[in-house]
Automatic annotation (TrEMBL), chain A:
Source organism, top-level taxon: Eukaryota
Protein name: Serine/threonine-protein phosphatase 2A 55 kDa regulatory subunit B
InterPro entries assigned: PP2A_PR55, PP2A_PR55_CS, WD40/YVTN_repeat-like_dom_sf, WD40_repeat_dom_sf, WD40_rpt
Quaternary state and interactors: PP2A consists of a common heterodimeric core enzyme, composed of a 36 kDa catalytic subunit (subunit C) and a 65 kDa constant regulatory subunit (PR65 or subunit A), that associates with a variety of regulatory subunits.
Keyword match Ion transport: no
Cellular component terms per the entry's GO annotation: protein phosphatase type 2A complex
Keyword vocabulary terms for this entry: Repeat, WD repeat
UniProtKB/TrEMBL annotation, chain B:
Gene this chain is encoded by: IER5L
Top-level division of the source organism's lineage: Eukaryota
Protein name as it appears in the record: Immediate early response 5-like
Family affiliation: Belongs to the IER family.
Gene source species: Acanthochromis polyacanthus (spiny chromis)
InterPro entries, alphabetized: IER
Amino acid sequence: MYVFEEERKSYLKADIISTVEFNSSGELLATGDKGGRVVVFQREQESKSQPQRRGEYNVYSTFQSHEPEFDYLKSLEIEEKINKIKWLPQQNAAYFLLSTNDKTVKLWKISERDKRPEGYNLKDEDGRIRDPSTITSLRVPVLQPMDLMVEATARRVFSNAHTYHINSISVNSDLQTFISTDDLRVNLWNLEITDRSFNIVDIKPANMEELTEVITSAEFHPQQCHTFAYSSSKGSIRLCDMRQAALCDKHCKYFEEPEDPSTRSFFSEIISSISDVKFSHNGRYLMTRDYLTVKVWDLQMENKPLETYQVHDYLRGKLCSLYENDCIFDKFECVWNGSDSVIMTGSYNNFFRMFDRNTKRDVTLEASRENSKPRAILKPRKVCVGGKRRKDEISVDSLDFSKKILHTTWHPHENIIAVAATNNLYIFQDKVN
Amino acid sequence: MIGGMEGGVDAQSLISISLMKIHNSRTQRGGIKLHKNLLVSYVLRNARQVYIKEKYAEIYRMQQYEEVMTVCNEIQELNPLDLDAEEADEEERSRGEESSVCGAALQRGAAQPAALCRTGSAVSGCCPLEDVGKDPEPSYYRSCCMEAPPAAPCDPFTGSGGAHCNKTTVLDLDTHVVTTVENGFLHQDCCCAPTGQSAAKKRKVEFGCCVSDLDDVPDFTRKRAKREDCSFSDYTDTSNISNLISIFGSGFSGLLSRQADLEQICSKQALASLGAWTRAIVAF
């Protein structure tokens, strides 16, 4: 029984979704999991005959992106888990995406094949070579329709550039370069060149004993191809301009909010570590996620955030137990909606939160099979922080910390969101009027 | 600083949890996660700061208690009506001096173990006595202090008059272990030598990530544990933790700048209060 449960755990573990990403048109949705697989969903064309199936997402392609590897020099296993997927904007019929594990970035081409040539002279329909003596006439092969086949091929492999674990990748708006970031370095690549990359940020100290912070995430500016930002474990964000110097160790802007001494605790450093940084679509704002809050920064104001949203402040009194069970190290992501008016991030108990920046209203929703049948409307949830618990509320102690929503993504134009809850993917759409 | 935290959060248990996490990270699939270990080291540092602060506060409280006790003894001794007990008084006074000197030595030793306790060639010499300028019978004091180690705790105050303290704290200057005798029961307190200056040899533990560096930590802790074991009969987890704290203390110099300041402040406070007392000793 014990062995069975262990096996089941390892089976489930490989299915745990580790990243989700819409492409730039919203037509495709990619997920990566701990087993190194990528599953791509495609939105159905809306049809008049079936209006209720308003653009549902179905599996389009599945492929094994990364395999487990072994670094013989360091005697270390390299996990196959997909840390990040980033789509390239579509330029022809094929789709391209970058996927990365801890050490290697790969460029995948996903293309369709719905025709095949038939009527070869030298080989028969099965592909076997024909005996030349039996060939008496010539014919031109013609393309015949076939069942749609989606194939994924690895076009580039960008490897051996990172000593530490890659935490993020970001495609530049010039569509020619991208950056890959690990704990201490940011490397710049050309999409066409795999045997060379340029190091543009290096925060490794001369003496590793003096290490005080690491890079947690980096992203290119959505419009300015020379600007990128990276966040640190100390809760700061640096904006860098690649035109200034080849090595962008010196930042242009430094965003940090001074720590409130009244909230100091054993775990202050952990909860202030930024787990995700995202530029707004319009390029004017930055959003950062730390353990308890989401902050929106104006690029013109470095000394404090424009807005701060409490995601689950009721956890502040539970930090010790969250430290013991390692939940305090969870890296939550955050996303903007298409118009930058709403931001979303995940929490525990399969809850995720949305904050409307204009109305200042927020809502907590739950991604679970029990509570959401297809076409059902999600009911707002509430966590009871103290005092009398109402009927529909859930108390802090009842929260399931093993059910966490770390990865979410928002359709670039419509109100469609994808939420990864452990090994399940939930896609929610706006209510159809 | 860190204070008034989550109720009931024990610095010691946080230290042991953190060390366990660092140890387990070595066998994690995918290699050591630099970010996570860095964050754990911050918790370790914070817990260590609180732990050391508490220890210093305890020593400071003990020292203040001893001062009060000695003043009380003096008041008793100065009772002019008690002529028969004059000799006894002198004895007590000298004992009081000895005990106070001993106490001062202990406390000074506690405050700055490395700086003050090097000159004696004896096992745990009360060398500060020489600094004081007074020339007591060294053997007596040495034996007094030598009894500090766990086997037979030094109890310099119980001999003084009626002021019977049922709690005595003794610091072993060599191994920096604080032993408390309370109502006749021996408590093995933790090592209170957090400073990087500690006389014990310290191997630098490189946090430097990844491969083999953290291999050194458990080995070293085992060696140090053995050394301590030779000294003490019962070796508690908390002593283990203290030793590991001191190991990490030498390793994370970048993280320790604030911590060093704290220690300096505590040392200075302890010393400041001692200053007046040592002057009194010299006068005698």
